[in-house]
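Archive transcription. Copying these from loose printouts into the bound notebook so they stop getting lost. Printout 1 of 2:
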Amino acid sequence: MKDLPELVSGPDIERKSFEIIDAEVGDHGFDETRWTVVRRIIHASGDLGLVKYVRFGGDPISSAIAALKRGCPIISDTRMATLGISMAKLQKINPSYTSDKILCAISEPSVIEQARASNMPRSVFNIRHLKQQLDGSIVLVGNAPTALWEVLRLYHDENLRPACVVGMPVGFVNVSEVKKMLMETDLDYITITGRRGGTPLAVATLNALASLALSA
């Protein structure tokens, strides 16, 4: 198969990818630490255009690093996200990390039943089910805007304050609006404005934060 490019190692692919992103994006206006996160998001998506849409509120990187070092819970709106988080990195940051600290209750029978009975999305009841762990946690929302809406409701109504919110739901209904609501708070957050987002990008953000925590 002479037309195929030569295979290279995973680390070399990542290094070369970052070099290409740096060269093609050029001046971007982010400091070195924030660029580490944005570049990882671009790498996970293949979309250089995202550089225009990533937003940081407050001091989310410092807050996330501190939270990871103390072994905070990580709450997600999807099981997919829990599988993509690097446990190896988390355990290097804080050996107390196990799968029990990466939380998603979307498949819990009580969550399913409450959603069915109320005709509301399971994503809402997932967050409600986990609200005792919400204060001081890192929240990843890469799919359901309703999950981010519930996080914000609990923040406003019950004064539950995550250490950092990675708010990147994707889609066409209430997605831009709920991200705007997040940006109007004083929470520490990382988001992507507009309709773009997705679980892979939320996970990439968390893994970038973990890498920064390892080097902090």
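Printout 2 of 2:
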Amino acid sequence: MDYMVLDNKNFTKYLSKHEIEAAVISIANRINTDYEGKQVILVSVLKGAIIFTADLVRHLKVDHEVEFVRLSSYGKARTSSGTVTILKDIHADIRGKHVLILEEIIDSGRTLKFLFERLKASGPASVEIVTLLDKSSKRVVDVPVKYVGRTIDDQFLVGYGLDLEEHCRNLPDVYYLKYPN
């Protein structure tokens, strides 16, 4: 399906499941090379990154643990409020360990900068950011994103973990909101 309608909004396919899979495999291959022989703690940002995380770990050959953190900066809005709240924190001791923060999309960078600095303050061996989609044109704070699946245009997206008011995360493809609506 190249388009869909949800809540009277028109969405057009932006990335196919095959394009997404290729990006995930490319990221996994880079991580496997960079962290060969090392243990990694993956910190997945809920809720959106859960599907990306699940697919990524299937392709990882490096020894890894998975932790989850839930942060909020959007609420039910389509743009970030700028204030980050921790709703669920990790439980692992990350001191001296290699940490990869997994996010499905980065736009302003505020949430990731908050999490990156918070984890870095805990004394890990390293902290790197991994994202499937990077909306770098929307960046308002500098965050060191090491692994990027795709750099994308400034579009409102749903599918593959991305939601519209908690709907559409299950779609295997990514769709953009076609304006005007």
